[in-house]
Amino acid sequence: MPNIKIKAIDIYHPNHVIENDFYINHFQKKGRDIQHFLEVMGREKRYVIDKVEENGLTMALEATKRVLERAGMTGKDLDYIEFSTQVPETTFPINAMYVHAEIQADHDTIIKDSNANCAGMTVAVEQASRYMLANPHIHTALIVGSDYNSLIANPEQEITYANYGDAACAVILEKTDENTGFIDASYHTDSVFKDKINYPAHGLTKAVKGKSDVQAINWLPFDGNVALPPTYKMIDQLLARNGLSIKDIDACCFSQFALSNILKIQDHYQIDQEKIIYVGDTYAYTGTSSPFIALYEGIKSGRIKRGDNVLFWTIGSGFQIVAMLYQY
């Protein structure tokens, strides 16, 4: 029986670094102290696009070229390309079309864009893995996630402006006879917060017709802790139905949105610190690519090795939670 493994992973981020002091000073001028906020979120610095020629698509193209080189492959070797983003550079054509052209993929390569907000790349990898298992003609897939978050971050709201960074991550999935790779995934969706995080703030129609601001995300306050009980339930179910316990997990690549969330999950399951891959102090929050940048850094540092069981967890606005098990 075939399995789907992560053959290679690579990333791209801009060179420009902004540290916390910039944002502390920015909000002090507005009469607000955000130092505690930055501690809770676990921020120190972030990579931010500062060149007009860079955007979410260019980051994705660079990450794609890097992962193909790492895998020893070309665009001709790909059967499937999926671009995950919540900040597409274009809607016509899809961004994956530009990836296809840049790497000169074949005419029979399947391409698509997808958007599950911050849960996007995890959803894309999970669903591509299942599709590859079902389709005998698909042997390799490129999943690239890229968000130009600073483009639409709201300078009046620290939850985006001081919290986000820009980056892209690309993975190559490969069908294999090895006893490794994709294991399972679980979802929980509750639409209770569907009107709390909006871009465009009042919908595309009003933005295009000039009746609403299109410049920034509008983020209204809500209690994100409500997502934790279903998180514990779905992780418990995911582990149980695959005959695993939390002690069988070798590494945790969670959403880097807030360090406080990671610490709560870690405390709930009593996960050893060395198993928690945290990169939010370096990259800040990169949106769709967030758990996979953690995977990349875990592999790079030697904390994640071939054969390790990796638990992914992330959340998309609205909200949708995704947990996924992969044997790297």
TrEMBL record:
Single Gene Ontology BP annotation: secondary metabolite biosynthetic process
GO molecular function, one term: 3-oxoacyl-[acyl-carrier-protein] synthase activity
Stored InterPro entries: ACP_syn_III_C (IPR013747), ACP_syn_III_N (IPR013751), Thiolase-like (IPR016039)
Keyword presence, Acyltransferase: yes
Ranges where the Beta-ketoacyl-[acyl-carrier-protein] synthase III C-terminal domain occurs: 239-328
Transmembrane among keywords: no
A Pfam family per the record: ACP_syn_III
Domain Beta-ketoacyl-[acyl-carrier-protein] synthase III N-terminal: 113-190
Keywords assigned by UniProt, alphabetized: Acyltransferase, Transferase
UniProt-recorded name of the protein: 3-oxoacyl-ACP synthase
Source organism of this protein record: Gracilibacillus dipsosauri
Lineage: Bacteria, Bacillati, Bacillota, Bacilli, Bacillales
